[in-house]
Write a sequence for this structure.
């Protein structure tokens, strides 16, 4: 069925460390994948996307890796800051702006 | 540039009633998508409109409906409300590119 799953519901890291959030997806036909960040009381905020013909894309302090062989997506956040505390969702595109979201990983930053 | 605006922010309704939620997309964006977010099911796609036409629909009962106006503003309606319809309803607008911008959502509570 439609599902994009997350490996861990919560992740706790030390401030300054790197964070890696993982995601498994189901639709081999998805042409792009997106990571969103959702802070308490707000809607999801776009972080970075990656097209299916790529295996890596870098942004500011973030890197997304795509492994189509095992249908796996990851988000790496470098030098994690307190402002990175949020729930992170991966999403895959099922066509015409239809996004299928994973369950989310809550990232907590320890001082 | 103003972001996506959803009204109202909070709503309490009684079982059996109906409700209409409103979404004003970012100026120039012609695609509007709706999502339901609950702790149990996560973010689930409801439907997407582009230029007043529904292009895609999720797996929700017919009690959930929507429409889009010529100015791209969109409304969604839920009839015969059930307790399980309590959720955060999110609207996202897009210029038909990968990045979708979400509003802060409407928190619907059905009692």
């Amino acid at each position: 069925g439609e599902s994009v799953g997350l490996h861990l519901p919560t992740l706790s890291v030390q401030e300054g460390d790197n964070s890696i959030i993982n995601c498994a997806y189901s639709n081999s036909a998805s042409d792009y994948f997106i990571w969103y960040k959702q802070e308490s009381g707000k809607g999801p905020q776009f972080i970075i996307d990656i097209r299916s013909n790529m295996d890596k894309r870098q942004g500011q302090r973030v890197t997304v890796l795509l492994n189509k062989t095992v249908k796996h997506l990851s988000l790496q956040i470098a030098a994690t800051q307190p402002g990175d505390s949020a729930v992170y969702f991966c999403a895959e595109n099922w066509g015409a702006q239809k996004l299928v979201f994973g369950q989310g990983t809550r990232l907590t930053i320890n001082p | 540039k103003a972001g996506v605006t959803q009204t109202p922010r909070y709503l309490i309704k009684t079982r059996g009633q109906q409700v209409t939620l409103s979404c004003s997309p970012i100026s120039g964006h012609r695609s509007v998508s709706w999502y339901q977010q609950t702790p149990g099911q996560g973010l689930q796609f409801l439907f997407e409109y582009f230029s007043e036409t529904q292009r895609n629909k999720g797996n929700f009962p017919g009690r959930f409906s929507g429409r889009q106006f010529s100015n791209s503003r969109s409304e969604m309606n839920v009839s015969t409300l059930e307790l399980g319809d309590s959720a955060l309803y999110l609207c996202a607008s897009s210029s038909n590119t990968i990045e979708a911008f979400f509003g802060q959502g409407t928190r619907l509570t059905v009692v």
Observations:
- The first strand of chain B starts at residue 5 and ends at 7.
- The mean pLDDT of chain B is 95.
